[in-house]
Design goal:
Blueprint lengths: L5 E5 L5 H10 L5 E5 L11 H16 L5 E4 L2 H14 L4 E3 L4 H7 L4 E6 L1 H4 L2 H10 L4 E5 L3 H7 L8 H8 L5 E7 L7 H8 L4 E3 L2 H14 L11 E5 L1
Parallel strand pairs: 1-2, 1-3, 2-9, 3-4, 5-6, 5-7, 7-8
Helix pairs in contact: 1-10, 2-3, 4-6
This protein binds D-glutamic acid.
The site of D-glutamic acid has 16 residues, from helix 3.
């Protein structure tokens, strides 16, 4: 079982950044990355629809014999991870908007939280926010942005003007929380807009650290040796 791969899924390419962080920290592990392109976008779907898609992703990864699953999508984590943990007897690691480090580190200016409409309306996210909102957080759901990133992944630069138009609406920003894994691909554009001093937060390294801890706790770390990465699209 320890040599079995770890499943990682998202609605598309967003979770690739999460996969990279996991690979950097756990280089002896094998991974199956699943992009649910037929379910994309999750961020404007109802909770029931997202739960159905997420369950389909999990079943597809179970067919690959995975030993643990990373839900590399803020929307899927907020909507569906509790139900997955109830239904399946295996470790799940999710990703959530990194509002905690942003609240602790941004003492002067505002924190802009970019996320999908579905994540913004979830009780799980609202409860996280209520614990860490320092009164300077702006919650900014982005309808359609994840899809644009998905379709322009080979030419993210072509989205620059559109992203600048979004960012122009927010003033005195000290930190930006990327609360959707797709938005991590916008880091350079966001830094160019606000300048080098801007603090940008995403959950990818945190997920990798949590995954490592969960594998250790469950005695599931792979032995040294051959490993692989497989990509699957449904
Ligand atoms: N990448 C997903 C997230 O982190 C959402 C993308 C989508 O709307 O499908 O929220």
């Amino acid at each position: 079982m320890n040599d079995a791969p770890i499943g990682v899924f998202d609605s598309g390419v967003g979770g690739i950044g999460t996969l990279k962080s996991c690979l950097d920290l756990l280089d002896g592990e094998s991974f199956v990355y699943l992009a649910d392109r037929s379910g994309m976008p999750y961020g404007t779907k109802s909770g029931d629809e997202i739960e159905k898609r997420v369950d389909e992703c999990v079943r597809s990864l179970l067919d690959e014999g995975v030993k643990a699953i990373v839900v590399a999508c803020n929307t899927a984590t907020n909507v569906g991870i509790a139900a997955l943990r109830k239904k399946y007897d295996m470790p799940f690691v999710g990703v959530e908007p990194a509002v905690k480090p942003a609240a602790l580190e941004c003492k002067r200016g505002n924190v802009l939280v970019l996320l999908t409409p579905a994540t913004a309306s979830q009780a799980k996210f609202l409860s996280l926010l209520s614990r860490f909102d320092n009164g300077r957080m702006t919650i900014a759901p982005q309808r359609g942005l994840a899809e644009k990133i998905e379709t322009h992944i080979d030419d993210i630069e072509s989205l620059r003007c559109e992203i600048y138009d979004v960012l122009r609406r927010y003033r005195n920003v000290e930190g930006v929380v990327l609360g959707c894994t797709h938005y991590v691909f916008l880091k350079d554009i966001i830094r160019d807009f606000y300048g080098e001093k801007i603090k940008i937060y995403d959950g990818n390294d945190g997920v990798a650290r949590r995954l490592k801890a969960v594998l250790e706790e469950n005695d599931l770390l792979a032995a040294e040796g051959k490993h692989f990465i497989k990509f699957k699209v449904i």
